Amino acid sequence: MAETKYIFVTGGVASSLGKGIISSSIGKLLQARGYSVTIQKFDPYINIDPGTLNPYEHGECYVTVDGHEADLDLGHYERFLGIQTTKANNITTGRIYKSVIDKERRGDYLGKTIQIIPHITDEIKRNVKLLGNKYKFDFVITEIGGTVGDIESLPYLESIRQLKWELGRNALCVHLTYVPYLAAAGELKTKPTQHSVKELQSVGIQPDILVLRTEHNLSTNLKKKVALFCNVDESAVVQSMDMPTIYEVPLRMQEQKLDVTILEKMGLPVGETPELGPWKDFLNRRHNATEKVKIGLVGKYDLQDAYKSILEALSQAATYNDRKADIHFINSEKLTDENVEESLKEMDGIIICPGFGQRGIEGKFVALKYCRTHNVPTFGICLGMQCMAIEFARNVLGYTDANSREMDEKTPHNVIDIMEEQKSITNMGGTMRLGAYECVLDPNSKVYQAYQTQHIQERHRHRYEFNNDYKAEFEKAGMKCVGINPESDLVEIVEIPTLKWFIGTQFHPEYSSTVLKPHPLFLSFIKAAIDK
């Protein structure tokens, strides 16, 4: 295609309607037609990135290969499209303002008064078109975070208005709204959608397509009514009902010809409807899997979005093992020596979750001791791997006061410590190892059997490392360091080979598991849990 086409996805009525899933589904359907597609998320909060945000407020922090801490929707984009996103795919208001202020301080604006229009909106528009200009994608889908009507979204909506005007048929707006069901009246109500579209029109944007989120099937008459009141073609009103899995959404959108409507509105040839064969195979395996594999998630955040990528990686791996992942959250703050057996005995496998800080850490040690002594398949991720090392040092090596410098500054047995070169850095984000790093695997290890290759690359998000001063002792006592970073000699993976499956990784393998390419470690872990 000669010119990049831009699709904007906005949301109204309520937040958390699934703009990320709709954006990913549109991307998937266009990609299946042979177009090159990328998706970006613009978040209207003033934080520079979600790295320092509370997971309870924002869900997990997703990490891109180039080490950017991003919104969890980027995980959906990667899982659906099998692409890799970067820092350029997630922009916040904080980054927009910082860029403009930095330019003003340098004197780039030659003494002009800096204003929201045109300076902030120009910076937003520059970022919207950045990936299209640089990589010549056929389609760039831009999801705007928040809800239409929020004061902080206004600069983004103004930028979309200008871009739609400038780009003509090369720009299109998909607006996602909610149609609530009033049980007392037994009716679905379209008024919130009408108001949301009116709000969008008041800032100069006429949506081209409406996607209506609903828990009940919408009648043809109701969709006609929405089309009439919102100035949208009848064929451009699409419903998005709750599905048993988010991975069904692209198929439901395809059934309603959402991709056809987009192509027609942008003046592109429609052509054959893609088969989506491998995608349908995945869904068939998922539907046909009747047996369950019970996995316990030991962590401190009692919120599914805080571990979103882990849940999806487990679900994908279970599907490819022809099982349903039956996942149980186990709050590590409540785990004690007295109740650990009761909490874990039913589980086929245990994940020790990542995280930061002291809270809930002792419960993770309790869980790990139980798993190690009862030979339960166990997967420690990031802090989970560090906890594996600490528990082993305390209960096998006999260093009862072993700890991480993160939890205890004065610990005499700092089996987990901060690297020398990071100690002088004070900026919270700057002390972390972020993004993809190389790792070389021991060919005689379970992880090598899973990956079937010696050289891997995985994504990191942590500040503390395994202390190599203890490496020889650990290996002698039975915990092997089987994955090493070739440049820094840092330990990336530990495992106890005498146990069924007891592996910890410094990195986050869940970030690189996708629908059509599940992660080898999760596949191997689920297989071990089934064998138990």
UniProtKB/TrEMBL annotation:
ATP binds at residues 16-21, 73. GO terms for molecular function: ATP binding; CTP synthase activity; glutaminase activity; identical protein binding; metal ion binding. Gene3D superfamilies: 3.40.50.880, P-loop containing nucleotide triphosphate hydrolases (3.40.50.300). The keyword Ligase applies. The keyword Chloroplast does not apply. UTP binds at residues 15, 189-194, 225. L-glutamine binds at residues 56, 355, 383-386, 406, 463. It catalyses: L-glutamine + H2O = L-glutamate + NH4(+); UTP + NH4(+) + ATP = CTP + ADP + phosphate + 2 H(+); UTP + L-glutamine + ATP + H2O = CTP + L-glutamate + ADP + phosphate + 2 H(+). The active site is at residues 382, 508, 510. SUPFAM superfamilies: Class I glutamine amidotransferase-like (SSF52317), P-loop containing nucleoside triphosphate hydrolases (SSF52540). Mg(2+) binds at residues 73, 143. Allosterically activated by GTP, when glutamine is the substrate; GTP has no effect on the reaction when ammonia is the substrate. The allosteric effector GTP functions by stabilizing the protein conformation that binds the tetrahedral intermediate(s) formed during glutamine hydrolysis. Inhibited by the product CTP, via allosteric rather than competitive inhibition. Keywords: ATP-binding, Glutamine amidotransferase, Ligase, Magnesium, Metal-binding, Nucleotide-binding, Pyrimidine biosynthesis. It comes from the Bacteria. CTP binds at residues 15, 150-152, 189-194, 225. Pathway: Pyrimidine metabolism; CTP biosynthesis via de novo pathway; CTP from UDP: step 2/2. Pfam families: CTP_synth_N, GATase. CTPSs have evolved a hybrid strategy for distinguishing between UTP and CTP. The overlapping regions of the product feedback inhibitory and substrate sites recognize a common feature in both compounds, the triphosphate moiety. To differentiate isosteric substrate and product pyrimidine rings, an additional pocket far from the expected kinase/ligase catalytic site, specifically recognizes the cytosine and ribose portions of the product inhibitor. Homotetramer. Catalyzes the ATP-dependent amination of UTP to CTP with either L-glutamine or ammonia as the source of nitrogen. Regulates intracellular CTP levels through interactions with the four ribonucleotide triphosphates. This is CTP synthase. It comes from Phocaeicola coprocola. The lineage of its organism: Bacteria, Pseudomonadati, Bacteroidota, Bacteroidia, Bacteroidales.
